[in-house]
Design brief:
346 residues; Di-copper_centre_dom_sf; mainly alpha; two-stranded antiparallel ribbon; binds copper (II) ion; di-copper center containing domain from catechol oxidase; 11 helices; copper; Tyrosinase_Cu-bd; two-stranded parallel sheet; oxidoreductase activity; Tyrosinase copper-binding domain-containing protein; 8 strands; globular
Length: 346
C-alpha cells in the first residue's frame, strides 16, 4: 500500500509511517473545528442531528447511557484515555454511516482558556451559548434539543456556565504542554490530563458536568482534543506509543491485555490510532489569533491559573484529590513561568 504523502504532512506525526496499518487505505484527518470549511462543519452538525432524530431512546442516547454505565472504569482509572478513544470512534462510525464524509473534529479549548465563554464554539453558528431559562440551550445548531438521560424521559439539553452566567478561565496551553513534557510514562500523563479535562466539564455545567455529558455534542469536540493530546504524547517518543500502566479505579493494576468493556476488545487494541480499526490522525490547527477568545498582547496568549476543582466533584469522578491538587500546583507553576515578563502590571 502506498501511503499518501499529503496525509502524512496533514497529520504532522513524525512516527506516522511506522504506525500505519497496511489495511488503513484511507486515513481520516480530524481537524480543529475552527479550521474546517463551513460546509464540512455543517455536515458534521447535520449528521449528529440525524443521529438524535429517532424516538428516544435513539442511536444518540446510547452514548450517554454507555458513559453512565461504565463511569467507574472510564474515569479515575488507567482506561480513561483508551475507553474514550473507542467511544469516540464508535460515535464517528455512527456519523459516517449517515454521511461517509464526516470526521469528528476537535476543539482546542486550551487556546480559549482565558475567556472560554467568548469562544466562537459558543455561537449561534456552532454550538450555541449558555442555557437560558430553565438552563435549556435555545440557540445554535442544537437549539431546543431533546435528550433522554438520566431521567429516561425526553427533556431539554442544559448548560449553566460556572453555575451562573459566565465561564471562568480553565487551564491553557502552557499548563497542558507542561503535563505533556513532564510525563515520562502513561500513568503520569493520564493522571495529569484527567484533571484539566475535568475543569472543562465542570465549567460548562448543565448536562456537561455529570456522567450523562454525551447529551451535549460539545462532548465529542472536547474528548477529541483530549484524544489528540494523548496521540501527540504517544508520538513524542518510541516508548510512548504503547506505554500503559497505573491503577484501575478498583485498585487493581492495568495492563494492555485487559478487556476494554463493553466493546470486546483489549485495552491495547486502542493504542495505535493508525491501526485498521481507527485509521485517523489529527491535523494541527491553522487558525489565527483573531479566532481565539482569550485576550492577547504582543502576540502572546494570556493564560491564567483557574480555580481548583471542587473536592466533591473530583471524588464523584473517581479521581484522587491529592493527585489533582499536585498537578494543579505543577500547572500553576508552568503558567507563571510561561507568562511574558513584559506583561503589563495590574
Ligand atoms: Cu467521560
Amino acid at each position: 500500500m502506498k501511503l499518501s504523502l499529503a496525509v502524512v504532512s496533514l497529520c504532522a506525526v513524525a512516527q506516522l509511517a511506522n504506525m500505519v496499518d497496511a489495511r488503513c487505505e484511507n486515513i481520516r484527518v480530524r481537524q480543529e473545528i475552527r479550521s474546517m470549511s463551513p460546509e464540512s462543519r455543517q455536515r458534521f452538525f447535520n449528521a449528529i442531528k440525524l443521529l438524535n432524530s429517532g424516538a428516544h431512546p435513539n442511536a444518540h442516547d446510547k452514548y450517554a447511557e454507555l458513559h453512565i454505565k461504565h463511569a467507574t472504569l472510564a474515569h479515575g482509572d488507567a482506561r480513561f484515555l483508551p475507553w474514550h478513544r473507542q467511544l469516540l470512534r464508535e460515535f464517528e462510525k455512527d456519523l459516517q454511516r449517515i454521511d461517509p464524509g464526516v470526521n469528528v473534529p476537535y476543539w482546542d479549548w486550551a487556546r480559549d482558556s482565558a475567556d472560554p465563554g467568548a469562544s466562537p464554539i459558543f455561537s449561534s453558528e456552532m454550538l450555541g451559548h449558555n442555557g437560558g431559562s430553565g438552563e435549556c440551550v435555545v440557540d445554535g445548531q442544537f437549539a431546543n434539543w431533546s435528550v433522554y438521560w438520566p431521567t429516561q424521559t425526553p427533556h431539554c439539553l442544559t448548560r449553566k456556565f460556572d453555575r451562573g452566567n459566565s465561564l471562568k478561565p480553565w487551564w491553557g496551553t502552557n499548563a497542558i504542554n507542561h503535563i505533556k513534557t513532564a510525563s515520562s510514562d502513561y500513568d503520569a500523563f493520564r493522571r495529569g490530563i484527567e484533571g484539566p479535562h475535568g475543569n472543562v466539564h465542570f465549567g460548562i455545567g448543565g448536562d456537561f458536568t455529570p456522567m450523562w455529558s454525551p447529551n451535549d455534542p460539545i462532548f465529542w469536540l472536547h474528548h477529541s482534543f483530549v484524544d489528540k493530546l494523548w496521540a501527540d504524547w504517544q508520538a513524542e517518543s518510541g516508548n510512548n506509543l504503547y506505554s500503559y500502566g497505573g491503577k484501575h479505579s478498583d485498585g487493581t493494576s492495568a495492563n494492555l491485555n485487559e478487556p476494554l468493556t463493553p466493546w470486546g476488545i483489549k485495552t491495547g487494541d486502542a493504542f495505535n490510532h493508525l491501526s485498521d480499526k481507527y485509521c485517523y490522525c489529527y491535523a494541527p490547527h491553522s487558525f489565527t489569533g483573531d479566532d481565539i477568545s482569550g485576550k492577547s498582547w504582543n502576540g502572546t496568549m494570556v493564560e491564567v491559573i483557574p480555580e481548583p476543582l471542587p473536592e466533591w466533584w473530583i471524588k464523584q469522578q473517581n479521581m484522587n484529590v491529592t493527585d489533582v491538587r499536585m498537578f494543579e500546583a505543577d500547572m500553576a507553576a508552568a503558567v507563571r513561568e510561561g507568562q511574558n515578563p513584559k506583561s503589563p502590571a495590574h
